[in-house]
């Protein structure tokens, strides 16, 4: 759970019968004391626990003061004047636990959420309620976490309210962490706040949905129990609004969840080759999705140094195989890998080895995915949606064909690198394709620059080229799809597109003058060296990034094509 930092004002005028509070649903049943935070149960603490009656139910009231802490501005007064005021402050908090029809709820006041045992919180409750009652045309604020990029957390607020999809939500690929919206006017719920009164003939319910709910509930014990029964009724009987269903497709496994360590232990066992079920592979951290390509990988895992131009799973797995099982997870967290560009410049100060891994683990009948150091639970609808979009992408090739990979000239070692292939295509198709490999567009948002494309194709197609095989796994393709998305999204800004036009003009002024106002399409051109690339043979962990690119670019009206290079 996180601090209650949202606005306290109510949509309608305050009612003496209700008060806006934070409500959490807890898992399990039984002794309410088992739901109380351990620190509040310890002896010699500042909190009191009282058995109480809430309406006709037995409840538990936990209350007290926080430890005194220094007022934040004391230090500045001290440095300005030399006087130490030594002012302190404490915060009074309370939480009321009550079980209603075999479902445990807790109402918290001030920092009362700190008095709840974290492991018992049902973190799906807030969104599960929202998708049944929210008017999808009355979204006021939404906070999202991109599944394929840990670094992308954004919050959009529109006080007047608007439709959910105008926020650019990427269906499956973004986890909604917070939703602020009005409930539907025709909601069949008899909450105390929604009953017509003299000063409020048609009251609307405003919800703030996170792990829990923030909403006005009855201040009377019997009224509160009645409100909680109505919430139970909504969860049991009200269907999910079709437009909001994707919000439940992906759920993040929060920090502190007991599943996380078990999942990461499973990954360590997969790397050591001790568990046959599950899948693990290399995956670029989100930090490497823009900027120059990685040309060298350096790091250390369990005392084993890594220095290679082709990072494989063995570089991470081999140092673990001689390590006791109980120490492998520590090695993944403390080991690090850096990516370097062709000029020897690194893009980070040591990303944990765990962040270079993508994994899929089945646990407790759920499919769990590790991406960029975070765990997510995938629903069946998510998997079906991904399969559907991947099939559409492969069924949509561009209206032209690229030459076979092996026609490009090899290097002294007999290998054909992407740079040589891109140059060959441009040379053999002069005027139709322009080679822009390693040519970066620099903006304020991308100070290191981003690669717009490997080739500029007919009709202003941004062509991104990659060679892959079972040895490289999904990592190069996940990177490819993410780069394509970053470039195309950046070009929705007219000034950035103009910078790209100038880059093209350095090679072909005539072509630059004919360019439109934005990309005509995005083409992912892929050569798989060990087998034919199809929708079925696309690596598991590349699928999410492809679907993310497809969905987002579709909202911009930019077609996405897959070109399979023979």
TrEMBL record:
Family matches, as Pfam families: DUF6119
InterPro entries: CHP04141 (IPR026487)
The name this protein goes by in its record: Sporadically distributed protein, TIGR04141 family
Originating organism: Lentzea albidocapillata subsp. violacea
